[in-house]
Amino acid sequence: MTPPPSHPHAHPHAYTHGATADGRVAQIGFVGRLYDEVLGLLMEARNYFLQRERSDVVGMPSEARLLVSQETMRVTCRLTHAMAWLLTHKAVAAGEYPADWALADERRLGGQDVCEETYWHEDPNLPPKVRDLLGRSLSVYVRIARLDNDLRMPPPRPGSGGLALVR
Question: Given a cut of 80, is residue 78 above it in pLDDT?
Fold first, then answer.
């Protein structure tokens, strides 16, 4: 695979291995921790959806069951987009791909139109576990979205007084 051209705003603190095309090397220690958190949430959500969701929706009106289905898909969407982003950046940290590859627009965190929606989060028709998973999946998704944006910001100029991204 041919490495992509340099990303103009690759942040200097992004990766342990690999450097951006302009020679800046970055460092990340949090990808593994976030990966573990998202994987744990994925497994917890999967177990809930397989074992308890059905019993939690028994007797609910069809509109409420539809809402539960919609919001459990939102949890899944957030976590799968988060995992895809983390696997991309984990591959860079392992030296499998250059940093610029991960910063290509097609590897940005996706799904904002669905994943950032919070309108139904506190609906009383949702089982407490679904509301819990919605809140926790949103939290991790928002943190990764912030990282995705931070990695694309130009680094502060020396002496500019700007804060450097330190992880």
Answer: yes
- Tell me how many degrees the CA angle 34-106-94 measures, rounded to the nearest 5: 45
Instruction: Work out the pLDDT band at 99, boundaries 50, 70, 90.
Output: confident
Torsion sign, CA atoms 31, 34, 39, 45: negative
Are 82 and 88 spatial neighbours (Cβ–Cβ below 8 Å)?
A: no
30-152: CATH topology: Helicase, Ruva Protein; domain 3 (1.10.8)
* Nearest-angstrom CA–CA distance, 140 and 117: 14
Residue 93 is predicted with a pLDDT of: 84
Q: How many residues comprise the chain?
A: 167
Closest CA to 151 of 108, 120, 91: 108
pTM of the model: 0.78
- How far apart CA 60 and CA 136 sit, in angstroms, is 24
Distances (CA, A) of 131 to 16, 121, 128, 137, 159: 36, 6, 5, 10, 46
Domain ranges of the chain: 30-152
Instruction: Lowest mean pLDDT of 7-16, 71-80, 81-90, 125-134, name the range.
Output: 7-16
